[in-house]
Design a protein that fits this description.
elongated; alpha/beta; Transketolase-like_C_2 (chains A, B); Transketolase (chains A, B); EC 2.2.1.1 (chains A, B); Transketolase_N (chains A, B); 26 helices; transketolase activity (chains A, B); homodimer
Chain lengths: 672, 672
């Protein structure tokens, strides 16, 4: 069948929907042509289905994009960004002007190549790195169910809709998300799969031949399939999906990529490049679109704006329900959504602090983290925790965050399973939804598995908290596959991520306090398996960890040498410093729990802490990056390469991370 | 049923197999007790099935562990390492002495906490990071089929067996591997799933409720299930799996973790901790094992050693078949297995080099990479390429590596699909199998998705080659999700990984040459989307990239300032240097394509290249790490944070990575 005949046949199925969908296709074609780059194929293929969704099902009010009880819409295949921008423009989001559409992919425009959270209203999450959209949406659905259990369906009762392409389902994280959603029966999660049989390298058959509906069914999903260009069929599927109340729903939409393009439809040529002027014109002719570039006829625009206003009554009714709550409940709901801390929080921190100074504790910093959580979580109902199947190792479960999140009861503790990447992306979704402060644990070496989601936390400016235990060779016998070496450096290299490696119980509490207060920067806590003494013993009101680094011990007067250490190695540096003092050297020991926060200090403070004496860094990790603070990597007492399997003490000895090595280097540097 | 009764019932199913399996259980219990750490549960549960596999199906000869046509055995759930060590010891691998078993998880022993490739013979790959074992095994199966097509089933005809636990199947990479193997119909891949219903956090039901056989079936697998403690049932399943010739096989084994432990069997308590002396004794009693610690009765040892010698005839027959080949064919097969380069290779490099100097080319370095591949791949039949669905962007496909690897024809080009992590792990498997030099491409930002497999390449010392294109903001409009910032630093931080960022066609060719020659170090090529001029124009025989860094341009006499740049920014540095010379400054421009190789140079060479003048680094990436070579990050012309969506030229301007910025900094530093 020619594309002309194909389009004619499809347009007859639901003519009104087809005409409205053409607005999306036309804007997409024009914007991609104007920017001379972009991905027209997927928006053209998905236009019909999204038109149904936005016209008839999605609960939203374009005039109030942030209405808390709106349905969430996630475009997991983010390269189809023009689909979303077109929908936002057509339905009347104020910031998504035609000028923005014209400036697609240009400097300063809110219409970035991939949807960027925080740029345009209505972009619920940053997408583009494939598979993460659906996993983030799982987090949103987790949030919705939990918040509804806390505040009632009067205030919280919405769906999360996700569009995914083949790429999202080929990526492993996609399966992690599908498996977790199916396990927990997240029935308000509805995924629409753009089954267009095309991938960048050609037909999907070159690399992909699964029975996708069967895979979802195996994971406990409600599954439907239909013609993605048949508005009525899509409508029926969406209605059935919304009616399903035990399982998440998949709707597999058979579509044609680049729908309407006479020479490129159904081909990978239309995936990631402009159609070209001639083909663009031919496509518009095939679609029956006689209008000029960026031109939307008034009747169609009016119909779209009606869709954008469709939710106004719902929203007003919701506001009335919110107003009808008791003042306390209304205030608490608002607080949760706004992400402000409760009044009781400061006192909880102070009490925890006082307790540590009253009775100092020797403990692994992972244990110190658990103690901090025990002290702070009761004051913070928004905290929602979990672990990628390492609860007993990460020590992420505490009495206030203990009730398991199950299919039946949405508790505060999520068993993410051995799915680090989906966990991290779901935590992003919990943040984005609003109402929650998520944290999740795994072994630090497996930050590798979820690294790009940590990056997205940082890029989006979300306050997720990563609890990464077993942070060095100090974990011992599990060996080099489990021992982080390059991880501290590689995480410190990520912009807008705060990496903490606290030295003791006090710094761990302080790090948690900073992480909790940081609602637009993610935090990552690198925590030890092995015990360390409490080094901070003098009660002081200031959170010194917030300085990033500070002199934790001064031996003698003046400075012959400065030892900079982090985490478990601060105690080692103190031991070495004592020995150096005995040899007549004046030594300052600097604890540096956070490079990022130290860099944010005034230069005078930094100069004072670092001093002018020779400096040695001590950290049981790779040496990369430490030249920021020491003269050369020869002045770093750290790991020369990968670790090994043996008891921790032996490893420290064998790899030369010892007080003796620190002392020897100090004597060399000072010439004493 | 009591564990006593349960064990009695199971032991009656195949008494001989049960008795042999008890040797594994006993050694595991004793070794974990001795080391006071480890994972006894899985080996105890899987002992029966692995006993069947090693006694009746696995083609191996313990006296010749490296026999090329042996079956491969991968323990994907690597924490069950004592299972493997027990099997190697019992079947008579010479290096796996009882002393090694006694020293489980101790310094210097080959019995590391997780199986480490290169430590003990019979460990085909390092496992522990979950899910990667099965993906690596997919690479081995890919290798087997391709090598068989090249050299005939006389020389290459073996299976790859994989044991996986729940964790491997929860990890996303597991699904990527399953999907790819099913798509390509890798029928000689047989996966045994230890379905023990227990995960670290408790019963798998806390986080996992899939119908695993149905998921595999949806991905095109042959699926069977049986009682994992019934030796005869396992035997029958293995026989059927080996007979299947169109699909990979899954055998789901219903097992009890910690089988035999009266108080801990079937519980997560037995997953990752010693049984304890009392329970260990009770377990042995339950199993009917009256022998002392590390004691194996002679009759059982003899039966096991017979199993270890079972393949000797096969191996001898294979050697006879190898000997019967033509000398050329035998030599070529041996060369491939040994990983040495062919005689014609040097000439191919020289010809490619000559061509570049004869007709210099302006080209993106990704294009330069394609040119290098076009020139070198014809000389190297061992090269096997692919891309994670970005062939047209990575430019990884060339005439010699063009035939698609399909279900029917195992060509040299693998469409990995949008599965970066499985791609990287499969490349490890292709290396480990022997006979291949794999390379694979994706966008550099998605190195995040496969990072832990890159790490395993480095840890195992494998010569995989990662082709990472779109290496900076120079990719333009796709925006911050696609623009690497911290990636160069975070990859440079990985031990034993060579990261190359070549400046032009010549350096790209040189980097490829080094990567190809490096059979025990992985290489990662960071390549540009945008064009750069060829800067090296003077024909010289030396591969200067092998120096890591060198003075590529000298302006004036002496040095007022040194500009160190990499990749696309070398040309920018040259432009700035020209302008600085016009202002009377003597400037050396250093191209630094590889930090790792530069660090390996003699100190005198490094000092000469770096010079004593003030230094400025120029790289369109995060500044982290550059203080190794410059005084402070203020001397780095690089990215202050994440990128943005806009045309590349505009991004360079807006982020201040310009000749003007270099000039301004140079003038400040030199006071001119």
């Amino acid at each position: 069948m020619s594309q002309q005949a194909f389009v004619a046949a499809k347009s007859a199925l639901d003519p009104e929907n087809f005409a409205l969908a053409n607005c999306i296709r036309a804007l997409t074609i024009d914007a991609v042509e104007a920017s001379k780059s972009g991905h027209p194929g997927a928006p053209m293929g998905m236009a019909d289905a999204t038109t149904v969704l936005f016209r008839k099902h999605l609960k939203f009010d374009a005039s109030q994009p942030d209405w808390p009880d709106r349905d969430r819409f996630v475009l997991s295949n983010g390269h189809a960004s023009m689909l979303l921008y077109s929908l936002l423009h057509l339905t009347g989001y104020a910031d998504m002007t035609l000028e923005q559409i014209r400036n697609f992919r240009q400097w300063g425009a809110i219409t970035a190549g991939h949807p960027e959270y925080g740029h345009a209203k209505g972009v619920e999450t940053t997408t583009g790195p494939l598979g993460q959209g659906i996993a983030t949406a799982v987090g949103m659905a987790l949030a919705e169910r939990r918040l509804a259990a806390e505040f009632g369906t009067d205030l919280v009762d919405h769906h999360t809709y996700v569009f995914v392409g083949d790429g999202c389902l080929q990526e492993g994280i996609g399966q992690e998300a599908i498996s977790l959603a199916g396990h927990l029966g997240l029935s308000k999660l509805i995924v629409l799969y753009d089954d267009n049989s095309i991938t960048i390298d050609g037909p999907t058959s070159v690399s992909f031949s699964e029975d996708i509906p069967a895979r979802f069914a195996a994971c406990g999903w409600h599954v439907q399939s239909c013609d993605g260009h048949d508005g009525r069929a899509v409508d029926a599927c969406l209605t059935a999906a919304r009616a399903e109340n035990a399982r998440p729903s998949l709707i597999a939409l058979k579509t044609v990529i680049g729908f309407g393009s006479p020479n490129k439809a159904g081909s990978y040529a239309v995936h990631g490049a402009p159609l070209g002027a001639t083909e663009a014109e031919a496509t518009k002719a095939t679609l029956g679109w006689p209008h000029g570039p960026f031109e939307i006829p008034q009747d169609l625009r009016a119909a779209w704006q009606a869709a954008g206003a469709r939710g106004q009554a719902d929203r007003a009714a919701w506001e009335a329900r919110l107003a009808a709550q008791t003042p306390d409940r209304r205030a608490e709901f608002t607080r949760r959504i706004n992400g402000t801390l409760p009044a009781a929080y400061d006192a909880a921190v102070q009490a925890a602090r006082d307790a540590l100074f009253a009775a100092p504790k020797k403990a692994a910093t992972r244990k110190a983290s658990q103690m901090a959580l025990e002290a702070l979580a009761p004051a913070l109902p928004e905290m929602i925790g979990g672990s990628a199947d390492l609860t007993g190792s990460n020590l992420t479960r505490v009495p206030a965050v203990d009730l398991q999140y199950t299919r039946d009861v949405p508790g505060r503790y999520i068993g993410y399973g051995v799915r680090e990447f989906a966990m991290a992306a779901a935590m992003n979704g919990l943040c984005l939804h609003g109402g929650f402060l998520p944290y999740g644990g795994t072994f630090m070496v497996f930050s590798d598995y979820c690294r790009n989601a940590i990056r997205l936390s940082a890029l989006m400016g979300l306050g997720t908290v990563y609890v990464m235990t077993h942070d060095s060779i100090g974990l011992g016998e599990d060996g080099p596959t489990h021992q982080p070496i390059e991880h501290l450096a590689s995480l410190r290299a990520i912009p807008n991520l705060m990496v903490f490696r606290p030295a003791d119980t006090v710094e761990t509490l302080e790090a948690w306090d900073i992480a909790i207060r940081s609602r637009s920067t993610p935090s990552l806590l690198a925590l030890s398996r092995q015990d360390v003494p409490q080094l901070r013993l003098a009660a002081g009101a200031e959170n010194l960890t917030a300085r990033g680094a500070y002199v934790i011990r001064q031996f003698g007067t003046g400075r012959d040498v400065t030892l900079i250490a982090t985490g478990t190695e601060v105690a080692l540096a103190v031991t070495a410093a004592e020995a150096l003092q005995a040899r007549g050297l004046a030594v300052a020991v600097v604890s540096m729990p956070s490079w990022e926060l130290f860099e944010a200090q005034p230069e005078s403070y930094r100069a004072e802490v670092l001093g002018n004496a020779p400096r040695i860094a001590v950290e049981a990790a790779g040496k990369f990056g430490w030249t920021r603070y020491v003269a050369s990597e020869q002045d770093v007492i750290g790991m020369p390469g990968f670790g090994a399997s043996a008891p921790a003490e032996r490893l420290y000895q064998e790899f030369g991370i010892t007080a003796e090595a620190i002392i020897a280097r100090a004597l060399t540097l000072t010439g004493k």
